[in-house]
Specification:
Strand content: under 5%
Radius of gyration: 30 Å
Largest sheet: none
Structural class: mainly alpha
Low-confidence stretches: none
Number of helices: 3
Order of helices and strands: HHH
Number of strands: 0
Helix content: 40-55%
Shape: rod-shaped
Length: 77
């Protein structure tokens, strides 16, 4: 188990001490359980579903997009 130092509000420390006594557990066990539960409840939401959108641009392209030379020529014009 890893040790760390947290700066907690005084009222929070008092409430945790009372709760630890009431539940007959240590502050460490209580803090671990509360943090673990909080982490489970605040999972990162799934990223939004991405969908490619296409639009009708008035018909087929005037240049073969797979023909690199034709595409470069059309871009230079």
């Amino acid at each position: 188990m890893r040790r760390t130092t947290l700066a907690l509000e005084e009222g929070l420390v008092t409430a945790m001490k009372k709760r630890a006594v009431r539940e007959r557990t240590s502050m460490t066990e209580l803090a671990n359980r509360l943090l673990r539960d909080a982490m489970r409840q605040t999972r990162t939401p799934e990223p939004p579903y991405f969908e490619w959108r296409t639009f009708n641009c008035g018909g087929p392209p005037l240049v073969d997009l797979n023909d690199r030379d034709a595409l470069l020529d059309a871009m230079e014009e």
